[in-house]
Amino acid sequence: MTPLRQRMLDDMRLRNFSPHTQDSYLLQITQFARYFAKSPEVLGPDEIRTYQLYLATEKKLAPSSLHVTASALRFLYKVTLKKPWDVEDLPSPKKPQTLPVVLSREEVTPFLESVRTLKQRTVLTVCYAAGLRIAEATHLKITDIDSQRMVIRVDQGKGRKDRYVMLSPALLTLLRTYWKAQRPRDWLFPSKLPGRPITTSALQEACQQARRRAGLKKAISPHSLRHSFATHLLEAGTEIRTIQLLLGHRSLATTARYLKVATSTVCATASPFDLLPVPPPLPEPPASPQYF
């Protein structure tokens, strides 16, 4: 490991970056250095611009991937190398604003019933019933299920934050059925590899298979169940601030996007056009002369 790589890693650890973010940033800087075959210490704004154009025009990376690269470069040159030039001027592509895929209440049950194994069905049900991210659900431990208080503890979720979410009676019944059948010891949903939780990739594949069996056309992923959780709560009249806390969102604006897909809420709002007086009928147009 080079001294620069170690210093950047130490800077991220001091700021309590998640292991995933650390690995991602280091990978981006490694690829940047390999592109020019030089140490990032001798590279500057011109090289950064050239590299970003290469990623956008030749590699045709998605805006989300370009955003990660820009964040990694910004951290390296602003925090670790402390360059005097304005790192904030590094362009970061604007992400397209897309609406999340949401299952209707009528679609949730056939979808979950189409998941074949009990373990995979239980994990995906947790995502919907408690609104967890798939990585949060796979990393649950038996001790995180508190049936006395009827809550689930999410340990170090996104942003390295702990939170509690509701444990519904129906979900508790399913979890007990699952526990009696599988008898997990530490991880609630263990992998076949000793000491490891089930992988998210296995659940992604299970999700696609269930979607096909259920005959659903939507592009469903495990995260769609979390989106559906939030949307269905909003449609049921739950306060958006409460939904924000349950989801673990830092910003209320992130949660507010579910207002765009909560169809029962949107459709229940009267259009101002409906409040106008009924206009008189339009006069009939004059008959056109017939020449043949």
Quickly describe the structure.
The chain is 51% helix and 5% strand.
Walk me through this protein's architecture.
The chain is mostly helical and 292 residues long. It contains 13 helices and 3 strands. The chain has helices at 3-14, 19-36, 45-58, 63-80, 105-113, 118-130, 134-138, 169-182, 200-214, 222-235, 240-247, 252-256, 263-267; strands spanning 145-146, 151-157, 161-166. It has a 3-stranded antiparallel sheet with strand order 1-2-3. Helix 2 (19-36) crosses helix 4 and helix 6 runs parallel beside helix 10 (222-235). The chain starts with a helix and ends in a 25-residue tail after the last helix. The model has no long low-confidence stretch (mean pLDDT 87).
Strand order of the largest sheet: 1-2-3
Question: How many helices in DSSP terms?
Answer: 13
| Spatial gap, N to C terminus | 91 Å
Structural class: mainly alpha
How many β-strands, per DSSP? 3
Question: Which geometry do the CA atoms define?
Answer: globular
Topology as H/E string? Answer: HHHHHHHEEEHHHHHH
In terms of DSSP E residues, the strand content is 5-15%
- Characterize the biggest β-sheet: 3 strands, antiparallel
Round the mean pLDDT to the nearest integer and report it: 87
Low-pLDDT parts are none
Cα radius of gyration in angstroms:
25 Å
User: What share of the residues lie within helices?
Assistant: 40-55%
Helix and strand arrangement:
Layout: H1 3-14, H2 19-36, H3 45-58, H4 63-80, H5 105-113, H6 118-130, H7 134-138, E1 145-146, E2 151-157, E3 161-166, H8 169-182, H9 200-214, H10 222-235, H11 240-247, H12 252-256, H13 263-267
Antiparallel strand pairs: 1-2, 2-3
Helix pairs in contact: 1-4, 2-4, 3-4, 5-9, 6-8, 6-10
